[in-house]
Amino acid sequence: MAIKTYAVLLRGINVGGHKKVPMAELRTLLEGLGHGGVRTYLQSGNAVLTADHEDDASLAAEVRAAIEERFGFAVDALVRDHAYLKAVVDACPFPAADLEAKQLHVTYFSGPVDADRFASVEQQAFLPEEFRLGDRALYLYAPDGLGRSKLAEQLARPRLTKGLIATTRNWNTVTRLEEMTRG
């Protein structure tokens, strides 16, 4: 089995003083699981590591279980390899180079999403904000940023994400994780 480089995306940690996971402790935890090259990015739950897991889902389950055991609370985690992260960057339907990072976001999903899931969202009502679907991802253009986005609020409704883990990153983080997982 070949060793691959992965990004670990944790959902909802270190937000508003809840579910605190210090990054130094997260690195130690991941290294303790036998993973190499462990690095973290920002305080919002982004890590990069090398592992010889057969699939993203088993590695994510291992990380979730270890975090719950160590910190005492459940945290959703998604794991994606470099090839996937590069494909997400390359497939961006918006002119990323012409936008500020705060205007472009990617929501990563634990499974496939299709247009039917989001058919109830009347995109015209939210213009100039827009979204497009990708491979287990949703690209969101929010010109005034995520915090002021009415479309982001609508897209985060539980009925639209039912049965899936979903976690969002701004474009700077999307591209930085792709860079960190290279080689």
Kindly describe this structure.
- With 183 residues, the chain is of the alpha+beta class.
- It folds into two domains: 4-83, SP0830-like domains (Alpha-Beta Plaits, 2-Layer Sandwich); 90-180, 2-Layer Sandwich (Alpha-Beta Plaits), CATH 3.30.70.
- It is 30% helix and 25% strand.
- It is built from six helices and eight strands.
- The strands form two sheets. The chain has a four-stranded antiparallel beta sheet with strand order 2-3-1-4, sandwiched between helices. A four-stranded antiparallel beta sheet has the order 6-7-5-8.
- Pfam families: DUF1697.
Characteristics:
Alpha-Beta Plaits, globular, 2 domains, 183 residues, four-stranded antiparallel sheet, DUF1697, alpha+beta, 8 strands
Largest sheet: 4 strands, antiparallel
Number of helices, where a helix is a run of at least 4 consecutive DSSP H or I residues: 6
Number of strands: 8
Molecular shape? globular
Instruction: Report the helical percentage.
Output: 25-40%
Q: Strand sequence of the main sheet, in spatial order?
A: 2-3-1-4
The figure for the number of domains is: 2
CATH level-3 fold name of the largest domain: Alpha-Beta Plaits
Uncertain residue segments? none
Rg calc: 16 Å
How confident overall, as mean pLDDT? 93
Can you write the helix and strand succession as a string?
A: EHEEHEHEEEHHEH
**Portion in strands:** 15-25%
CATH level-1 class of the largest domain: Alpha Beta
Task: Assign the CATH superfamily of the largest domain.
Answer: bacterial protein sp0830 like
Spatial separation of the terminal alpha carbons? 16 Å
